[in-house]
Amino acid sequence: MAWIYLTIAGVLEIVWAFSMKQSEGFSKLGPSLVTLVAMIASFALLSLSMKSLPLGTAYTIWTGIGAVGAFMVGIFVLGEQANAMRIVAALLIVGGLVLMKMSSPA
């Protein structure tokens, strides 16, 4: 269950990052509320996953899912630039996540 909690927490990190962008500095109520609820849920699920996963593994995977997911949302939803260097950087993050998962005892 820890990996499921961690995956959902990572997806919620993408949600709160996107909704924070949409809140325009917390000046829009709807996206601001989505940001806060998704943040709380993400942190709670991260905390649950840390009951059985090592800190370094859980935190690295959580931030990696959020970073790569936010990068993809930026490109596909917000129309941000997708050049070769940014794509290679995202692939390196994904590679690090795979290695972290493979090296985890849980």
UniProtKB/TrEMBL annotation:
One of its GO terms (biological process) is xenobiotic detoxification by transmembrane export across the plasma membrane. PANTHER family: GUANIDINIUM EXPORTER, SMR FAMILY PROTON-DEPENDENT DRUG EFFLUX TRANSPORTER SUGE. Coiled coil: none annotated. This is Guanidinium exporter. It is found in: Cell membrane. It is a multi-pass membrane protein. It comes from Sphingopyxis fribergensis. The chain crosses the membrane at residues 33-50, 57-78, 84-100. The keyword Cell membrane applies.
